Amino acid sequence: MSVDYYFKNRLSKNSKELQQIMDKPWLADHIKNGHGPLCAAYPQEYTSEGDTPSFMPLIRNGLEQHTDYTLGGWGGRPEYKNGDKNSLSYQWWQYREAGSVQTKVAIKHVDEKRTEIIVPDNPGKQLHLILELTDNGTPNLKSYKRVILNVN
Question: What is the mean pLDDT of residues 36-40?
Answer without folding.
Answer: 83
